[in-house]
Amino acid sequence: MSQQTQDTGRHYIDGEWTAGAGEETFESTNPATGRQLGAFHRGTPGDVERAVSAAETAFEGWRAMSYIDRAEVLWDVYHELRDRTDELGAVVTKECGKEISEGRADVVEAYHMVEWAAGNSRHPHGDVIPSEIASKDAYMRRRPRGVVGCITPWNFPVAIPFWHMAVTLVEGNTVVWKPAEQTPWCGQIVAEMMVDAGVPPGVFNMVQGFGDAGNAIVEDDRVDTVLFTGSAEVGHEIGAKLGGEPGREVALEMGGKNGIVITEHADMDLAVHAAVMSSFKTTGQRCVSSERLIVHSDVYEEFRSRFVDLAEDVAVGDPLGEDTFMGPVVDESQVEKFHRYNDLAREEGADVLVDRAELDDEEVPDGHEDGHWVGPFVYEVDYDPHLRCIHEEVFGPHVALIEYDGDIEDALAIHNDTRYGLAAAIVSEDYRQINHFRDHAEVGLAYANLPCIGAEVQLPFGGVKKSGKGAPSAREVIEAVTERTAWTVNNAEDVQMAQGLSAEITTGSDD
Ligand code: ADP
After folding, report:
1. Residue 206 Cβ < 6 Å to ligand 1
2. Are 237 and 348 in the same domain?
3. What is the pLDDT of residues 296-320, one digit of tens each?
4. Whose CA is nearest to atom 7 of ligand 1?
5. Domain match, 215 and 268 both
């Protein structure tokens, strides 16, 4: 840990930049070079406590503003994100290692989300609903829940925070945000944008730090909703803590063991393209990345040969280079996990087809020797429900080819044999197969003749089974950060009840 200095990144709490109560700082490191990018104060549970108090105090004033006035703050952030897309995209790439088109796309996705949320402030917020009684007007209205805690991961360090915060703020909630410890620089820039846009004190608070700071958000019962995107382990821990707590809402989005089904009717160009994008983009570190390719035996040989050729060849290198397809993984623990699962696949009997797990020295770009480098690892294995390597998420370019015989139900049986359920794709020219897959794949996001990555903000984003609960992302986050009120008004001068219920009050003196 470095000493605190004036340049050390700070928290933003109650309208002020602050070093917080703790003594410790931590470094942000470039995964491609191993070089330090900056130091940041490490938030403590006490800092979180102050941030929640500020958010609680600011809530009444913020919710009293109109939707449209609240959205004005977000429109300023939108313009800043657009104006600084290249600059911030490069920071994303330097801090989390994904290649530069992905770094930029992270910022583009963020301003799309802000655009959706701020634009939505001028759209209807609820429904007018008929009543059985002609003299009654009934409505569904929304109101903000209060203080929302946002805990975000490193792999989309700008987009995911806005998935959590943009709708949340426009709906009238206040925010306590903890960015991922791997990407505090992105966190700092996002916070600066909020401040420049004039967000009132206490409405937006940011505490830098690790899991203990995240946990303090979860433990504080003044936080009405917790939005979490990250690992299944932590997500389930949060779900278990808050699941039974009256009045506390939680929306979780975790990973997957996502699969692509390539049927006997697949277009092979599309199949190979979709599989390479899904397995290797972001070096396999998207929650929607695919680690299982389930391929019909009629097309298996051709698919295997073409997929293997490309996996042998995809460009791993400097993520700031325009020709790079795959950058490094985020840190050394991710390198170790990847190797551990590659070894496990071997132990479980897999036949390894591509092993670029340890890159040759000449593949590592000059000056990047201390980066966290890995390359594609591809294997084939007979389907067996007991194999851990095809059931546990690796979060790296670790891909299984699994051959199947029979019809789409047989492919689906393999596909659905996982405790996860985030994203999937089918490649087929047969619309019946496609529609059957759409209706029976146990996932929250599904694609046909496309990669299983690349969600857009105007669609819901979230998983089923072990992959999530609710949707802390994109437009559906509105359900987690608002309460719905069924509101009925009587326009008559007497009381009439629905369902034929008598409204007469009888008394003992009536007879
Ligand atoms: P990843 O594997 O993507 O890093 P994590 O679940 O470890 O996923 O981290 C996602 C976010 O959750 C990060 O901001 C991290 O600091 C935070 N976090 C980690 N542990 C906890 C915890 N016990 N409670 C709350 N937040 C946590």
Report:
1. no
2. no
3. 999 999 999 999 999 999 999 999 9
4. 231
5. no
Sheet holding 351-355, edge to edge: 351-355, 377-380, 398-404, 290-296, 258-262, 423-427, 445-448
- Among all chains, which residue has been given the structure tokens 């506390």? 248
Ligand 1 site, residue 225, Cβ cutoff 6 A: no
Choice among 171, 253, 264, 393 that is catalytic: 253
**225 and 359 housed in the same domain:** no
Same domain? For 372 and 237 the reply is no
Number of structural domains (the chain) is 2
* DSSP-derived 3-state class of residue 108: helix
Catalytic (active site) residue 452: no
**Residue 281 and residue 200 in one domain:** no
Determine the distance separating the centroid of ligand 1 and the alpha carbon of 245, expressed in angstroms: 21
Burial label for 462, CB within 10 Å (0-12, 13-18, 19+), is buried
Average pLDDT over residues 166-191: 98
Assess contact for 197 and 77: CB atoms under 8 A: yes
For residues 213 and 328, membership in a common domain is answered with no
- Summarised one tens digit per residue, pLDDT across range 365-388 is 999 999 999 999 999 999 999 999
Using alpha carbons only, give the angle 119, 124, 129 rounded to the nearest 5 degrees: 160
229 lines ligand 1 (CB under 6 A): no
Q: What is the CATH number of the domain that holds 282?
A: 3.40.309.10
Please, are residues 306 and 275 in contact by the beta-carbon 8 Å criterion? no
pLDDT of residue 6: 54
Residue 5 within a domain: no
The reply to whether 223 falls in a domain is yes
Any ligand 1 atom below 6 A from CB of 215:
yes
Give me the mean pLDDT over the 191-209 stretch.
98
CATH number at residue 164: 3.40.605.10
Quote the pLDDT of residue 476.
Answer: 86
Residues 176, 310: one domain? no
Distance, CA of 133 to CA of 208 (rounded, Å): 54
- Is the C-beta atom of 178 inside 6 A of ligand 1? yes
Residue 204: strand pairing partners? 175
Residue 397 belongs to what domain range?
Answer: 258-448
Q: Which pLDDT belongs to residue 510?
A: 59
- C-alpha 351 to ligand 1 mean position (Å): 34
Does residue 474 register a pLDDT over 90? Answer: no
Residue 215 lies in a domain: yes
Of all residues in the chain, the percent with pLDDT exceeding 70 is 98
Taking CA atoms only, the protein residue closest to ligand 1 atom 19 is 211
Reply yes or no on whether 504 is catalytic.
no
In angstroms, the CA 165 to CA 117 distance is: 9
Average pLDDT of the segment spanning 26-49: 97
Looking at the structure, tell me whether residues 443 and 468 fall in a common domain: no
* Domain membership flag for residue 494: no
pLDDT at 4 (0 to 100):
42
